[in-house]
Amino acid sequence: MTDFMSLPDLALRTYGGAVVAANDESFAEREALIRPGPPAFQTHTFGAKGQVYDGWETRRRREPGHDWAVVRLGLPGVIKGVVVDTAWFKGNYPPYASVEACAMDGWPSPDEIAASAEWVEIVSRSSLKGDAVHLFEVSDPRRFTHVRLNIFPDGGVARLRVHGQVVPDPAFLHGLTVDLAALENGAVVVACSDEFYSSPNNVIAPGLARNQSEGWETARRRDGGNDWLVVALAGRGTVAVAELDTGNLIFNAPSSASIRGIDATEAALDDDQAWFPLLDRTRLQPDTRHRFRLDGERRMTHARLDIFPDGGMARLRLLGTLTG
């Protein structure tokens, strides 16, 4: 699997992404492009517009041109790869597609985007197959806020995934108390003992987990050890409050957890002696949002969450202040 697939999907609906415009959605709505989860399909489910598809589908084009959809990234950042998934579109997929990106300040309307966006091609016009997943690596190092999927000439696409590194607007981080472990602020999980059931980056995703799959859950341990993950914070800072949320985890929550910190500008992550305690091993309850005030005044760049012995965590929040 291409390396970029392990990075967050910057366009995901549950991360705040939105399909803000499309020139046509006659057969299937544009919003389906960024839904979480794989596309679904059920045969012989016909509505007034024909077979129901879990994706975006345009009408049969009878004039020159091509169809397009514009997505506002819920998490602006540097795009490392794009996935164009034509799942279940077998006789009605577009034979070609390309992707463009732009960066715009504030919250522009579709009309403002159309009038002033400076689009950059990040995926050139490429061949597509029906009912297939297409992976495209991106090398442009710039920060983008919107992408535009172009399909030639028409047809259906089930999902558009835009994987990359989150780069937040620093104006909303400097001088404020923020969640230093939040994916939307630029934090990312850089190491993890186990991700059998779900991605560890789920634990720092925006919002609350609606079910177990939207958190981090490990396999059952049989070796006497414990599971853990390491988060690279949004930046070097101090942490005042830790929140451990075991929401939706009723029979598979960890019995206890601890948190440690390290300043990677002064020590290596593999130097166990350099890690200092933020939260001593503490008993947890299932399906509960736990909040702890910390005495932490030490600067840190990374946090390590240990859960004992295994199980899951819906969300980890580390509220604090950047120091640089």
Automatic annotation (TrEMBL):
Record-linked Gene3D superfamilies: Galactose-binding domain-like (2.60.120.260)
Regions that span the bilayer: none
Highest rank taxon of the organism: Bacteria
Any GO BP: allantoin catabolic process
Enzyme Commission number(s) from the entry: 3.5.3.4
Catalytic activity: allantoate + H2O = (S)-ureidoglycolate + urea
UniProt keywords, alphabetically: Hydrolase, Purine metabolism
Entries under NCBIfam families matching the protein: allantoicase
Protein name: Probable allantoicase
